[in-house]
Design goal:
mainly alpha; Hypothetical protein af1432; 2 domains; 0% strand; elongated
Length: 289
């Protein structure tokens, strides 16, 4: 029969408490029977009991917390390994997947910081930006194309990548924010996006942030079917899309901090930064092991 940590801790506490009460009461009665010091001794015994159980609970809770932290660390390492496999598969499926993620992730991180995200929320939005199009792995039509116009069937197939991405990331137990980004980064502020037609603040904040940077990157990059747009044209498109395609407040922040965000992305995409990131990724499995 297996027992849970909570049950074991409770049983230890109950057994020790009963033993202390029964043995200490008998010991005091036998030593101080009829003495006026018996009441004082009982009071001191009570204080000792409270302090002792407090210390014991502190140790039990501390031990449980360490186990929980270790389990969380192992889960995070597992997610990182899954993520590396997914990214490798994306790079094989789409030649531009790696470079696009390299451009998008630092811009998303910068805009998220401007919005006020920190700590775990910031880490999750970076992972979500990296894996936003992971659903394309299951969509044959999602690979590189030189077509300027897709058929209705092809567009419907490509749009499935948001649902597929959500399913893949949920099965791998990624955080909800990461799943939300994959599922909702093609939604529009006016409700005419896909897959669910969410509008306004019903779209998760992280997905709204990634959507802005994702569109900026798509327009600023060469594609098989078109050349990249001039920067001024891209920024005009972003301004005009505020309140229709994009969250207007987030778009204003993106435009206001554009040079700063672009500079951070350029720094992150430099050869030195790429070498450092590669070294960090190479060290992760050793730590996990």
């Amino acid at each position: 029969m297996t027992t849970t940590p909570q049950l074991r801790a409770s049983l230890i506490y109950v057994v020790l408490a009963f033993a202390w009460i029964a043995l200490s009461d008998r010991a005091l009665e036998s030593m101080l029977k009829g003495s006026s010091l018996l009441v004082l001794a009982m009071t001191i015994k009570g204080f000792v009991f409270v302090i002792g159980t407090g210390l014991m609970l502190y140790w039990i809770l501390g031990h449980g917390l360490k186990s929980l932290v270790a389990a969380n660390h192992n889960l995070r390492n597992d997610n990182e390994r899954v993520m590396r496999v997914l990214l490798a598969a994306m790079k094989l499926a789409r030649k531009d997947a790696g470079s696009a993620s390299d451009r998008v992730v630092p811009m998303v991180e910068g805009l998220a910081k401007v919005v006020g995200l920190r700590g775990e929320a910031l880490r999750e939005i970076k992972v979500g930006a990296l894996l936003r199009d992971v659903g394309n792995l299951a969509i044959a039509e999602a690979g590189p194309t030189t077509q300027t116009r897709l058929s209705t069937r092809q567009m419907a197939q490509i749009r499935r990548h948001t649902q597929t991405g959500r399913d893949l990331l949920e099965q791998a137990d990624f955080p909800a924010t990461v799943v939300d980004i994959a599922h909702a980064h093609h939604e529009r502020w006016d409700g005419f996006g896909y897959p669910r037609g969410l509008a306004g603040e019903a779209i998760p904040l992280a997905a709204r942030i990634v959507s802005i940077v994702d569109v900026w990157d798509a327009l600023s990059s060469d594609r098989g079917y078109r050349r990249k747009w001039p920067e001024s044209k891209v920024l005009d498109y972003m301004r005009n899309g505020a309140g229709s395609q994009f969250d207007p407040a987030l778009t204003d922040l993106f435009i206001a901090h554009y040079e700063q965000l672009k500079g951070a992305a350029r720094t992150a995409h430099s050869p030195a930064a790429s070498t450092q990131a590669a070294s960090s990724r190479a060290m992760t499995p050793a730590r996990a092991a």
